[in-house]
Amino acid sequence: MSASADLLKELRIDRNRPPERSGPGRGLLVGIAVLVLAVLGVAAWALFGRTGGPRVETATVTAIGGGNGAGASVLDASGYVVARRMATVSAKITGKVREVMIEEGQRVEEGQIMATLDPIDANAQRELSAAQLGAAQSETARVQAQLTEAEANAKRLATLAGQQLVSKSQYDQAVATRDALRAQLLTAQRNIKVSGDSLRIADIGVDNTIVRAPFSGVVTAKAAQPGEIVSPLSAGGGFTRTGIGTIVDMDSLEIEVDVGEAFIGRVQPKMPVEAVLNAYPDWKIPAEVIAIIPTADRGKATVKVRVAIKNRDPRIVPDMGVRVSFLEAAKPAQAAARKPSAMVPAAAIVQRDGKDSVFVVADGKAAQTAVTLGRKLGDDQEVTQGLSGGETVVLAPPDSLADGGAVRVENDAPGSSDN
Question: Residue limits of the YknX-like C-terminal permuted SH3-like domain (predicted)?
Answer without folding.
Answer: 343-409
